Amino acid sequence: GELLRAGDEPRREGQGAEVARDPEAGGARLQKGQEEIKLLLLGAGESGKSTIFKQMKILYGAGFSAEDKANFRTKIHQNVLTGIQALCNAVIELELADQTDDA
């Protein structure tokens, strides 16, 4: 059987099994003595299924590719800037600028 990982697209008719075995396509090869374990993550949207998958990949897998890391870096920078912007807007909206300590 094959395991559908978070973010993977279901295979269409005619796509061969070689896709799952290709390490460049994300298929991991087992080392001698290792056992393949399949895990089905169920849950509603936004319940953390992808987060659990990513943590398992970090802890027990080969980690993330350079491309994945670059994508995460971009997303993290966007999230930080969005958070800073939200804080600045809240200070203005709640008129807290006069209450800050400049010590």
Write structural notes for this entry.
The protein has 103 residues and is mainly alpha-helical. The protein is 43% helix and 0% strand. The chain contains 3 helices and no strands. The longest helix has 28 residues, at 66-93. Residues 8-26 have low confidence and may be disordered.
Count of beta strands? 0
Distance between the termini: 64 Å
Q: What is the count of DSSP helices, taking H or I runs of 4+ residues?
A: 3
What share of residues are in beta strands? Answer: under 5%
Percentage of residues assigned to helices? 40-55%
Cα shape: elongated
Task: Report the C-alpha radius of gyration, rounded.
Answer: 21 Å
The oligomeric state is single chain
Low-pLDDT runs: 8-26
Structural class: mainly alpha
Report the order of strands and helices. HHH
| Average of pLDDT | 75
Biggest sheet details: none
Features:
103 residues, mainly alpha, 3 helices, 43% helix
Ordered list of secondary-structure elements with their pairings:
Blueprint lengths: L17 H4 L27 H12 L5 H28 L10
How would you concisely characterize the structure shown here?
This protein is mostly helical and 103 residues long.
